[in-house]
UniProtKB/TrEMBL annotation:
Residues 1-29 are annotated as: Disordered. This is DUF4185 domain-containing protein. Residues 72-368 form the DUF4185 domain. Residues 1-14 have a biased composition (Basic and acidic residues). SUPFAM superfamilies: Sialidases. InterPro entries: DUF4185, Sialidase_sf, TAT_signal. It comes from Streptomyces anulatus. It comes from the Bacteria.
Amino acid sequence: MHEPHRFRSVRPDGRSGGSGRPHPPSRRSLLRSAAAGSLAAAGIVTGAPGAAATSRVTGSKVRDLSGPALTGRFAAPWTDLGIPVRCPDGSMLFVCGDTFDGGGVGGPDWRSPVALRSSNAAPGSLVVDGAVGGSRAVGLVPEGHTGGTTAIPSDVFTVGPTMYMHLMRGVIYETHHTDFWRSDDNGETWQYLCQWPGGLHGGQFQQKTYAVADDGYLYVLSTAFDRDVTSGLLLHRVRQDAPGDPAAYEPWGYAGGAWAWGNPPTTVTSPRRWGEICFRAMGGGYALTWLNMSPLDIRAQFFATPTSNLFTTAEQTMIVPTVPGRETGNAVASPYGGFIIPGSGVDDLHIVVSQWYDAQNYRVMQYRVNGLDGPAR
C-alpha cells in the first residue's frame, strides 16, 4: 500500500481539520520481509536485540475470529487487532482497528475502532455473536479519516465496572496525539477523558498497554508507534482511580546510580523496533507479549513484578513468520498483534494474532501456545 498522506490538523475529538475524501488506510508495508530467512515451524528464533531463548514452545491455531463468513453480518468482514477484554457483564469484547465492508481492505465504510463481542468469554469457546452497533459495527469514537487519519487502539482493559480504551490518533505512524476513553456500559458507548501529545518522552509514550495490579495501581508500558523506528520501552504507574489524569502518571527510571519511581523515564529493556505490545497481570506475576520486528516474531516475557529486570528476563518466541500456503503449528503468514486473551495462563496461553498479506487476507485469529516457562520465583 502507498506511503502515508501527510497529517492535517487534528482537533481534541480526533477529527481532522483538513478537507478531502477519505482514503484507504495508508500503512507502510505491513511487515517488510515478513518471511525472509524465517520459514521455521519451530518457535526458536535468534537475533539481536534480545535474542529469543531456546524453548519447547509449540503453538496452534484455534480458530478465525473474523472474516466474511464470521463477521460479515456485522458489516465487518475485514478487520484486525481484536484486542480482547473481559467486560463487567462477563462477555468478551474484541476491539479492532481499521475495519471495512465490501470486497476487502480499502473497501467501503471505513471505521476504526470497532468492537465485536463474544457472549461466552471462556478462551476455548470464543465466537463473535454480536457487535457494538448491532448489525453494523459502529465506530466507537468520532473519526472521519479525513486526510488519511485513523484511530488505532493500543489497549482496552477493565477496572471494576469501568472499561478504558487507549487510542493512537493521526496518520498511521505519524501519531499526532493519543487519547483515552471510558465506558460504563460494557463498551457500548465511550466518553473522552484526556490526551497526550505524540512527541511526549521522545515519542515513546504513544503506544501504551496497561496491567491491572492487585495493589491499587495500573502499570503502563509504552513505546513509539512506528515499526521503522527504534524505541525504548518505558514504564509508568498510575492509581486505578486516576488513569484519566495525565499528571498522575509516575515514571520509573534510572538516575544517580539507582532505579526509582519519580526519576525521568528510561527504557526498561533493550531498545528495538516494536510492533503491538500487551502487558497483563497473570498468575501472581506479569506477562508482556509483543510483535518483534527484527527478527520478525511474536514474543513473550514472564516476570514476578512490574519492575523486574527485563534486560535479563528470557524472551520466548510464540509465533514465527512463514509464507502463505506453508502455515502450520505456530508459523503464520504476516503475523502481528499477539494480545493475551483473559482467562488464559502461562501453561495454556491463548492470544489474538492478526494477519494481513493482501486485500482478502486480513483477519483476527486465536492461537494457543504451550511450553512457555513462567516467571522465576
